[in-house]
Structure formats: C-alpha cells, structure tokens
Amino acid sequence: MLKRFSGLVKTILYGKQYPFNTKTVTLGDQQFLLRKIVDQDIKELIALERDVYFGEAPWTKSAFLSEIHSPIPHLYLCIVTLENEIAGFIGSRLIGDDTHITNIAVGTYFQGQGIGSLLIDEVEKFAIMNDCETLSLEVRLSNTDAQRLYRRLGFSSRNIRKNYYTENSEDALDMIKHLDVELGGQ
C-alpha cells in the first residue's frame, strides 16, 4: 500500500511532461505527421472510434477533454495523413510506476501499416523517460488481432477483468509489459 501511495505522489509531484514535438514519420511509402492531440481533434477521434468499434464510441467528448487536460502526466498523440485525416491515436497516463494506455485506435483503412506499433513505441519512450517499470492496457477478449500485436510488442497477459466493457459486459484481458528503467530519462 505504501509503495502504491508513494508511486502516486511521485506521479503527481514529479512526473515529467513529455516534451513532444510534431514530427514527420514514414511508414511504407506514406508520410504522416505524429503530433499531440488538441481539442479540435475530438470530433474526428470519436468518428474514428465508431469506425473501429463497430458503430460504438467508447469515449465521449468530455472523456477526451478530461484526459488531454489532466494535471496527471499523460501523453495523447495522433498520427495524421498529409491530407489532415487522423489515421490513429493513442492515449496514456502515468500512474505510479506504470504508464497505462487508456485508449488506442487505428482506422480500419490504415490498419496493418505499422501505425499501432509506432504509437505504442512513442508511449513506451514516455514511460521510460518517467522511470516507469511497466506499460499496461486492457483489450477486449474478442479482439485477437490487437492481442497478437501487443504480444509481438512484448506484452503478456496478467488477468481477465470480468464485465469490463459496460456497453456489452464483455470481459477484458489485462496486459502488461515490463520495461528496462535503466534506460530512463534521468
């Protein structure tokens, strides 16, 4: 209990905000911009979620706003085509010695191009910079493609969270990746 409390105090008082500068990335033969999410992106992020989650939008506008303006150290990024279409996004927040991936989605048209891996790599850099020991996330039990990606990136199953998703009571697989904090940002 004390370790968890001291980790939370560390998060709030000492967490470093990730100095993320927009950058151009090339995946395959296509160029994208990788940048922080801003308020004006939220409508498109919700539309992207509906595309990926079969008509559902797990997060509301207020949920996105709350996360991207939270005082807790966090990183919310989107990857955008040169035509200014959001191809994918990821969100994470620091909780003690863990960086938790709160949300990730890649548009169906853009899946299989390495965007998900790139986004998770950026969050892992954020986690290491903040001396986190783990990276964690939940994924629907039915989403075997995402589970396969996460395992390929070094995540392992921790446990099953019963009835995790409120809209349909689907269970979630809780996954974790242990990080080498020796590489951290001290």
Q: What's the arrangement of secondary structure elements?
A:
Blueprint: H1 2-14, E1 23-27, E2 30-36, H2 42-52, H3 61-68, E3 74-81, E4 86-95, E5 98-106, H4 115-129, E6 134-140, H5 144-152, E7 156-165, E8 170-178
Parallel strand pairs: 5-6
Antiparallel strand pairs: 1-2, 2-3, 3-4, 4-5, 6-8, 7-8
Structure, explained:
The structure is a single chain. The protein is α+β, with helices and mostly antiparallel strands. It has five helices and eight strands; from the N terminus they run H-E-E-H-H-E-E-E-H-E-H-E-E. It has helices at residues 2-14, 42-52, 61-68, 115-129, 144-152; strands at residues 23-27, 30-36, 74-81, 86-95, 98-106, 134-140, 156-165, 170-178. The chain has an eight-stranded mixed beta sheet with strand order 1-2-3-4-5-6-8-7. Helix 4 (115-129) links the parallel strand 5 and strand 6. The longest helix is centred in the middle third of the chain and has 15 residues, at 115-129. The model has no long low-confidence stretch (mean pLDDT 87).
Short description:
It contains 5 helices and 8 strands. It has about 190 residues and is α+β, with helices and mostly antiparallel strands.
List keywords for this structure.
alpha+beta, 35% strand, 5 helices, 186 residues, globular, 30% helix
Number of helices: 5
Runs in which pLDDT lies below 50 for 5 or more consecutive residues are none
Span of the ends, CA to CA: 26 Å
What is the helical fraction, as a range of percent?
25-40%
Global geometry: globular
User: Beta-sheet strand percentage?
Assistant: 25-35%
| SSE sequence, one letter per element | HEEHHEEEHEHEE
Give the strand tally.
Answer: 8
Strand order of the largest sheet: 1-2-3-4-5-6-8-7
